[in-house]
Amino acid sequence: MRNIRKGDIVGRKSYGKDIYFKVVNIIEIKNEKVAILNGLFERIEADSLVSDLEIIPKNMVNERLEKLSKFINKRINKNNYKRSYEKTVTGKILHLDGDRKYSEKSYNYYKKVGLNATVKNIPEYKQPKVVNRLLEIYKPDILVVTGHDGMLKKGKKYNDIFNYRNSRYFIETVKEARKYDKEKEEKLVIFAGACQSYFEALISAGANFASSPARILIDFLDPLLVAEKVATTEKYRFITIDDIAYELRDGKNGVSGIGANGKLKKLI
Fold first, then answer.
1. In the list 16, 164, 172, 179, which could disulfide-bond 128, CB 3.0-4.6 Å?
2. Residues 249, 197: Cα–Cα separation, whole Å
3. How many Å apart are CA 188 and CA 142, to the nearest integer?
């Protein structure tokens, strides 16, 4: 088998190849090659010795992609049919995503289900620096702050911000967004986080919904489904995680929060 290269889709042999990753970089540490990995279907960032990786056959990747495509199309058909009889204006979404491919997929999903959404591919570490400017430009009702994350030592140091790959950036972004929100009195609804993110700190920073209470993986679609629910629910209705959990990959273990009012406006 050929050598692992940047851009390959791989699995970790020591984990039974349970997650499909894309190799985003290969570096050398103490004379050993280490791959930096981003989940292909889950919002997880990890690293691994190249020697522990195995290339996933294209047919297996395509099977997963087809399954995801069918799920998305089913939701699109259901939601477009349901809203075709209503005269409404859905909540406006601003989505910051650290992953370029996920940004493209997210934009396509929002567009197909008829939502008013702007998606920006912003690396996680840059999100706190640009969020205020983007909020000023787009004036959304809903802010999604996501990308990839992961615990460096899984199952340990839950309260150590430096044990998370990107949670500190998500937290800083939420805080910046709340400063903007306080000035403008917009009552912005915020989703923040990715796989294994520091849930409690994200909620304390001001997120309405966040991942991941059980420090588990979340699906690429989970943040989008939360944003969609808020955008398509009437303003007088208060949404709790119980209204969304059944649609998410692992329910309240993956995403939870304090809830929020919907952002849908009905036209008379």
1. 172
2. 15
3. 6
Q: Which distant-in-sequence residues (6+ apart) come within 8 Å of 109 by Cβ?
A: 72, 76, 221, 224
CATH number at residue 208: 3.40.50.10090
Asked whether the CA dihedral 70, 251, 197, 169 is positive or negative, the reply is positive
Residue 96 CA, distance from chain mean position: 9
Same-domain pairing of 139 and 252: yes
As given in the structure block, the two tokens for residue 142 are 């809903």
Establish whether the linkage from the previous residue to 256 is cis, with ω within 30° of 0: no
Can you tell me the distance from the alpha carbon of 176 to that of 126, in angstroms, rounded to the nearest whole number? 12
Q: How many domains does the chain have?
A: 2
Per-block mean pLDDT, blocks of 10 residues, the chain (268 long): 88 94 93 93 94 95 90 76 67 97 95 94 98 96 97 90 97 97 86 98 98 95 96 95 94 96 86
Q: Looking at the structure, tell me whether residues 244 and 150 fall in a common domain.
A: yes
At residue 253, the 3 state secondary structure works out as helix
User: How many whole angstroms separate alpha carbon 124 and alpha carbon 166?
Assistant: 7
| Residue 40 shares a structural domain with residue 161 | no
